[in-house]
Write a structure and sequence with these properties.
With 502 residues, the protein is α/β, with parallel strands linked by helices. Helix content is 36%, strand content 21%. Strand 15 and strand 16 form a beta hairpin. Bound molecules: adenosine-5'-diphosphate.
Length: 502
C-alpha cells in the first residue's frame, strides 16, 4: 500500500485498544485484499471509517468500483481454475480450516477492538459474534472429508455417478451489524472448495481484512479469499453484476435484497438471502414472566436493536399485560447506555447518524400513530449515535411501528386475547425471519410452532443460534439457509456422470 496516512496518532490514543488491535489499526489506511495482498483502489478513491461511539474518523479504507471488482474476480477465478484450493486433499483442507479457527481464537482481542471501533459493538455482543464465527469455521472444517456424491440406480450397461462439485466464485455481501462473524459467511463456501469475495459493509470494512489475512496465514492459498471494499451501489453492485461471480450470499435489508435479485437475474446467479425481520415474541398468561421479561427485553435492546432477529413486536396476553409491561420497563429503565469500549455498557451506540435519524423518525411516527411511549423515546447525548431503549404500548399491528423494520431499540407491545388472535397478529407481517413463544403449556407450544410462519421459532428462549442449525427466513425475510448441513447445497452443484461399460 502506498497511500498516504491521513490520521494522527491521537485518534487511536482515545480508544482503549489491546496491543494487537492497536498494531492492526496503526496501519490506518486499509485497502482491498486481492490475490493475497492488501491493495488500494484502482481509482485511488477512499472512504473514511467513523467510530460510532464518538462519530469521529479513525481510519481510511479503499473505495472500490467495477475495476477493483474485476481484479478480485480475476484472482478468485484463477485460484478456482488452477485448483490450488478446490483440488487440495480434503483432509488437508480440514486441517487448514481448523488452523483458521485457531487463529481467529488467538486474534480475539483484535476482532473485539475492530468490532467496537467501526461497528460500535459492545463487549458481550462482540464476544458472541466472534464465538459464532469461530464455531462456524469449526463446524464447516469437518465437512470436506464428508462431502460426497452417490451412485444412483442406473441401466445395467452403464455406471452412473452423481458427483458433488464446488460452484466457482462466491460473493459474500454482509451488513455492518456483526462484522466479526464474517468468517461464518464464507466457511461453508470454502469447505466446499469455492473461491470467495467478501464485500463488507462500508461502515465496518476492517474485520474482513483481518479474516482474509488469517485465511492466508492458515494456509488457504492466495486468491481463494478476497475482499472488495466500497459502497453498495458501486462495489456491491459491480460484484453482483460480474459474470465471473456464480453465487451470492447476501445479508441485509429487503430493499437491497430485491435490488440484488433483479441485478443477478440476467446471469441466473444462485442467491441466498437473509433479509430483515419484525419478529414477534408471544407471551402467554402461563409463561415464566420473570424469564420472559428478561429475555424479551434483551432481544430488543441487544446491539441496540440492530439485529435481524430482534423481537421487536412483543405480543402479550391481556391478563398479564400491565404486569408484564411493568416488568419490561423496570428491566429496561436502568440499562447503562455508553460507548462500546466501556466494559459496563449495556447498550451501545447505533451505527451511524443516518440510523439514529431513522430511529428518531420512527419514534415520531409511533407517537403520531397514537401509540403510548411507556419508556424512552429520545436520543441520548450530543456526540455518538445513542438512543434510549423505547417501549411503545397500545400498539395496533397495523401501525407502521409494528410493520416496518426499524433496526433500533424500539419495542412495540401489542395485547391479545386468544391463541388464535396471537397467531393471526404474529403472522400478519411481510417478514418471517423468527418468532418466540413463552408458555408452560407443552401442547400450546407445539401448536404455535406449527402455526407460526417463520424460519426459526424459539419456545421459552430466544435468539439461540448454532453453526449446526439452519438459519434463514420465510416470506420477505429471504430464502436459502445459512449454517447447518443444508448450506452446503448452496455452494455445490451435482454433476451426473454416465459411463457405458457394456
Ligand atoms: P443496511 O443493512 O445498512 O440497511 P444494506 O442492506 O443496503 O444496508 O447493506 C448490506 C450490504 O449490502 C452492505 O455491504 C452494502 O454495501 C451492500 N449493498 C448495498 N446496496 C447494494 C447493491 N445495490 N448491490 C450490492 N450490494 C449492495
Amino acid at each position: 500500500m502506498t497511500m498516504p496516512a491521513q490520521h494522527s496518532a491521537d485518534e487511536l490514543d482515545r480508544l482503549p485498544l489491546s496491543p494487537a488491535g492497536r498494531r492492526f489499526l496503526e496501519r490506518r489506511v486499509f485497502g482491498h485484499f486481492i490475490d493475497g495482498a492488501m491493495v488500494p483502489s484502482a481509482s485511488g478513491e477512499t472512504l473514511t471509517v467513523l467510530e460510532p461511539s464518538s462519530g469521529r474518523p479513525f481510519a481510511t479504507v479503499a473505495a472500490g468500483d467495477a475495476e477493483d471488482v474485476n481484479r478480485a474476480v480475476d484472482a478468485a477465478q484463477r485460484a478456482f481454475d488452477d485448483g490450488r484450493w478446490r483440488n487440495l486433499d480434503a483432509q488437508e483442507k480440514e486441517r487448514r480450516l481448523r488452523r483458521l479457527s485457531a487463529l481467529l481464537d488467538q486474534n480475539r482481542p483484535t476482532l473485539r477492538d475492530l468490532d467496537m471501533a467501526d461497528g460500535g459493538v459492545i463487549r458481550n455482543f462482540t464476544d458472541f459474534f466472534i464465538q459464532f464465527g469461530i464455531d462456524a469455521v469449526d463446524y464447516y472444517a469437518g465437512w470436506p472429508t464428508k462431502l460426497h456424491g452417490s451412485t444412483p440406480a442406473a441401466p445395467p450397461d452403464c455406471v452412473v455417478m452423481e458427483v458433488r462439485e464446488p460452484i466457482g466464485v462466491v460473493a459474500s455481501i454482509t451488513p455492518w451489524n456483526g462484522p466479526s462473524a464474517s468468517a461464518s459467511g464464507i466457511a461453508a463456501a470454502l469447505a466446499c472448495g469455492n473461491s470467495v469475495i467478501m464485500k463488507p459493509a462500508e461502515q465496518t470494512p476492517l474485520t474482513a481484512l483481518l479474516v482474509a489475512e488469517l485465511c492466508l496465514e492458515a494456509g488457504i492459498p492466495p486468491g481463494v479469499v478476497n475482499v472488495v471494499q466500497g459502497v453498495g451501489e458501486k462495489a456491491g453492485a459491480a460484484l453482483v453484476e460480474h459474470p465471473g461471480v456464480s453465487a451470492i450470499n447476501f445479508t441485509g435489508s429487503v430493499e437491497t435484497g430485491r435490488r440484488i435479485q433483479a441485478a443477478a437475474a440476467p446471469r441466473l446467479k444462485r442467491l441466498c438471502m437473509e433479509l430483515g425481520g419484525k419478529s414477534p415474541q408471544i407471551v402467554f398468561n402461563d409463561a415464566n414472566l420473570d424469564e420472559a421479561a428478561t429475555v424479551a427485553a434483551g432481544a430488543v435492546w441487544g446491539h441496540s436493536g440492530q439485529v435481524c432477529t430482534a423481537g421487536t413486536r412483543v405480543l402479550v396476553e391481556r391478563g398479564i399485560h400491565d404486569e408484564f409491561v411493568a416488568e419490561l420497563v423496570s428491566r429496561s429503565r436502568a440499562l447503562k447506555i455508553g460507548t462500546a469500549f466501556s466494559p459496563d455498557t449495556q447498550m451501545g451506540p447505533l451505527i451511524s447518524s443516518e440510523q439514529l435519524d431513522r430511529v428518531s423518525a420512527y419514534v415520531a411516527i409511533g407517537k403520531a400513530e397514537g401509540a403510548h411511549v411507556a419508556l424512552g423515546g429520545a436520543r441520548v447525548g450530543d456526540g455518538g449515535y445513542f438512543h434510549q431503549p423505547t417501549i411503545f404500548t397500545g400498539v395496533d399491528n397495523r401501525m407502521r411501528i409494528a410493520r416496518e423494520e426499524i433496526f433500533g431499540p424500539v419495542m412495540a407491545v401489542i395485547p391479545f386475547d386468544t391463541e388464535e388472535e396471537a397467531i393471526a397478529i404474529a403472522n400478519d407481517s411481510e417478514f418471517g425471519l423468527s418468532a418466540g413463544v413463552w408458555t408452560r403449556d407443552l401442547s400450546r407450544g407445539h401448536r404455535m410452532t406449527q402455526a407460526l410462519r417463520a424460519g426459526t421459532v424459539w419456545v421459552n428462549t430466544y435468539q439461540r443460534v448454532n453453526a449446526a442449525v439452519p438459519y434463514g427466513g420465510f416470506k420477505q425475510s429471504g430464502y436459502g439457509r445459512n449454517l447447518g448441513a443444508v448450506s452446503l447445497d448452496s455452494y455445490t452443484q451435482l454433476k451426473s456422470v454416465w459411463m457405458k461399460i457394456r
